[in-house]
Amino acid sequence: MVNSATVSSSQPPSSVDGRASRWDQHRTVRRLELIASARKAVHRLGPSASMEEIAAASHTSKSVFYRYFGDKDGLRHSMGEVVINQLREAVISAGESKASPEEALFSMVHAYLAQAERSPNTYEFVTAHLETSDSRALAHFFSELTVMMHERMADYVHANRADGASADSLAYWPEGALGMIRSVGESWLRQSPHDPARPSAELLARRVSDWLLYGISSITKATRKVSR
């Protein structure tokens, strides 16, 4: 006798797993498509664009964005993961490509500024609340930068350290440098690109790296002093 429950049983697990896998792949692709279209919308509309405006520019409904990202902060977080990872790749690669610590620092600052300048609106949108969000990409990026800057500049400090200067004087420099680079960069991004006083990304990167290496004495006649 045939058991009717056996006849009506569900499909084999492999078939179910295959459908689930295809559905997950579809959702992943769709998320990336929505992030890409949202980036274009924010680039054109500005960092204060609403979810409704972003959805309209993306030729889809607001409910689709809510389904995939929850809310605007969810979209900001997901977009931020992508943007920060691309920024990280550019900056880290720039730092690794130069032989001297001085040129490595300049290249990293220049890469950061050039990437942010590609879309100031997108940069502002994704960085506005990253410090207060659970952004593993941002934390990992800053951690990598801190280690790289410390390692690259340690040799420079060792070779140029004044007699009697403390060996651990570089301890807080990477974090301070990152704060300065970001603060200067964001002030620069807010400046009109048509302002004749606005320096190019390359020129500003050179100025910032000089300030970090030589202090304000790089643009004054003051005698450079090294803190002991």
Automatic annotation (TrEMBL):
This is HTH tetR-type domain-containing protein. It comes from Neomicrococcus aestuarii. Gene3D superfamilies: Tetracycline Repressor, domain 2. Residues 7-16 have a biased composition (Low complexity). Residues 1-23 are annotated as: Disordered. It holds the Pfam family TetR_N. The keyword DNA-binding applies. GO terms for molecular function: DNA-binding transcription factor activity; transcription cis-regulatory region binding. The keyword Nucleotide-binding does not apply.
